[in-house]
Amino acid sequence: MKAALTFTFMLMLTSALFAQSNFYRLSAGAGAGLTRPLTEVPQRDFGLGGYGALDYLFTPFLSLGLELQKGEINGGDYTTDPQQRQFVNSYTSFSLNGKISLGQIIDNNYNSLSNNLRGLYIGAGMGLIQNSTEFITRDIINTDSVYVGLNKTKDINFPLNLGINFYFADREGFYRYVLNFNYQGNITLGENLDGYDDSRVTFRGGKTDIYTFLSVGLKYQFGGMGLSRKTFRRY
Q1: For the domain that residue 97 is a member of, what is the CATH number?
Q2: In which domain, by residue range, is 200 found?
């Protein structure tokens, strides 16, 4: 009898140590937010942007996915800017992004701080951005000079992500729905984000063109089930 109780206790302990949970392998999401440029044009305005994303989950907290983003990047004001510059860029970007969440590293304990922060993540990627300048001031008033630049360009783009996911379970107890908040910084290799290419005048690169995208979105998780060693299901 004593041996049987000891065996049962050890079996329960082993099961607890190797607790596993199922999770959905695919995640589709969409959202919207505000863009802001960081270019040679000093005055920066907010623009509107939206995105759609499809991710493959290696674990509940490690993913690789595709993102399509479209919006406007605005800056300058020809009436107040000392150099009389203003632009509106209607851009489209496509990128591959990898993300890792805090839950990949820490253990999850229900009703604890770690449980609330497990969705906090960082990420990085690479992609292509297509710039289409819908409005730009190139002529300098009262002079014969014009600003150099192209209205339609393509550049390599490197998105950097910082965000947090909040998970909500379906009727079966699996986490199906996700509320996402994300702050993305996009570094481009060209100088075409604002439509002004100073390098073609000075023959040397100026500041790297960057834009940020602060967004909120919803994700729906689906597809085949994966198995995680971390407890990732609400019972």
Answers
A1: 2.40.160.20
A2: 22-228
CA separation for the pair 123, 98 (Å, rounded): 5
**pLDDT tens, the chain, 235 aa long:** 555 444 443 434 333 434 568 899 999 999 999 999 999 888 889 999 999 999 999 999 999 999 999 999 999 998 888 888 899 999 999 999 999 999 998 876 655 666 778 999 999 999 999 999 999 988 877 667 788 888 899 999 999 999 999 999 888 888 999 999 999 999 999 888 998 887 665 545 567 899 999 999 999 999 999 888 776 655 4
**What 3-state class would DSSP assign to 139?**
strand
Q: Is residue 7 part of a domain?
A: no
- Tell me which amino acid residue 88 is: V
Which pairing describes strands 62-76 and 86-101: parallel, antiparallel, or unpaired? Answer: antiparallel
187 vs 131: CA distance, rounded Å: 14
Q: What is the number of structural domains in the chain?
A: 1
Is residue 124 classed as helix, strand or coil in its secondary structure?
strand
**Residue 203, token pair as written in the block:** 């023959």
119 SS3 class:
coil
Q: Determine, yes or no, domain membership for 15.
A: no
Q: Which residues pair with 152 in a beta bridge?
A: 132
Q: Does some domain include residue 124?
A: yes
Return d(Cα 112, Cα 114) in angstroms, integer: 5
By the 8 A CB rule, do 185 and 210 touch? yes
Q: What three-state secondary structure class fits 7?
A: helix
**Terminal CA-to-CA distance of the chain, rounded, Å?**
32
Asked if the structure places residue 206 within a domain, the reply is: yes
Instruction: Say how far residue 78 (Cα) sits from the centre of its chain.
Output: 32
